[in-house]
Amino acid sequence: MHELRKDPIVGRWVIIAPERITRPVTVTDNEPVANPEDFDPFLEGHEDATPHEILAYRNPGSRPNGPGWRVRVVPNKFPALKVEGELVRRGDGMYDKITGIGAHEVIIECPHYETNLSRLSVEHIREVLWVYRDRLVDLRRDPRLVHGLIFKNKGALAGASLDHSHSQLIVSPIVPITIQEELEGSEAFYRYRGRSIFSDMIQQELATDTRVVLDTPNFVVLCPFASRFPFEICILPKQHASHFENISRQAIEDLGQVLKTVLRKLEFALDDPPYNFVIHTAPFDRQELPHFVWHMEIFPRLTRVAGFEWGSGFYINPVPPENAAKFLRDTPVD
After folding, report:
1. Whole-angstrom Cα distance, residue 248 to residue 244?
2. Which residues are annotated as active site (predicted)?
3. Is the alpha carbon torsion for 208, 182, 298, 229 positive or negative?
4. What does the pLDDT look like over 233-246, one tens digit per residue?
5. Rounded mean pLDDT of the chain?
6. How far apart are CA 286 and CA 187, in angstroms?
């Protein structure tokens, strides 16, 4: 029984998803699985090993759920949330819970065996990004669903269970607490200053230029001032936009090159680390927000979160973001 339960003290929602414990694992902290292609359900020609596709960018003449695709989206076989059913809110004494309605999809980023998104062509990465946009546009039509989070786990230490390059999308009936905190913080700044905190951040970072990794016509890539993790990266659009699904084709063109460059820098500078990335975007049920900007966060998994971090909410980062940014700026990608 999938459901969401709310922590009554801090207001954080938790997904209870018993089926997730049965998902297969081909990625380990130590030795890679021998001949991983033999166990790869995401490989072209293994389409019968996944649920039927929701969306695929295909070559002309190819048929659904068969070979000939370039990027493919399927329901997660072991979902955190399920799209079927009725959204019901109910109490359990002092506690609140919601039926586990939502969507959990897997974006298979390439048909051949590849572990690194960064090794795909820029054109291919652009298609992956465009698939993200297409799925958000489609799922926001469901009135039960409120927010979509796109994320990628690369490597066992980052939570990946399969090493074939893929990302995921979970759409939920509530706004996650991290997004809510960003929305409230940026709105408070906007009400006080009358302008977007993201715009101010971009202007200051470009002016000081100590934490900027990359500056392009449409995006600024930086190591945040209060980075929680070593080599944490944030990709911010220069053109104000609160919803990723409203991204323009021109921005996608630039973002594809930006993402490849940043991931290649991390790969070369840090010896191909495990990492997570997430796209923070505004909730579906809100119009364009003047105070919030969608953005992408990338976290190389170089340190482990331990007792102090879990207990306090503080993070201990041994690498100043200024040093991390300089190291990445100086790292060649060819």
Report:
1. 9
2. 166
3. positive
4. 999 999 999 999 99
5. 93
6. 13
313 Cβ neighbours under 8 A, 6+ residues apart: none
Average pLDDT, stretch 41-56? 96
CA angle 207, 211, 217 (to 5 degrees): 60
Whether 233 and 269 have beta carbons less than 8 Å apart is answered as no
Regarding pTM above 0.85, the answer is yes
Q: For residues 327 and 29, which has the higher predicted lDDT (pLDDT)?
A: 327
Return the number of other C-beta atoms located less than 10 Å from residue 142's C-beta: 16
pLDDT-based confidence at residue 28 (cuts at 50, 70, 90): low
For residue 324, give the nearest of 249, 265, 237, 251 by alpha carbon: 265
User: Residue 9 corresponds to which tokens in the numbers above?
Assistant: 């003290």
Q: State whether 116 and 191 are in the same domain.
A: no
Q: Residue 334: inside a domain, yes or no? A: no
**Confidence (pLDDT) at 30:** 47
Please report, for residues 168, 192, 197, the alpha-carbon distance to residue 182 in angstroms, rounded to integers and kept in the order given. 21, 16, 11
Q: Domain residues for 281?
A: 178-329
Q: Report the distance separating Cα 180 and Cα 154, nearest Å.
A: 26
118: in domain:
yes
Please choose, from the candidates 218, 241, 245, the residue with its C-alpha nearest in 3D space to the C-alpha of residue 131.
245
For residue 47, count other CB atoms closer than 10 A to its CB: 24
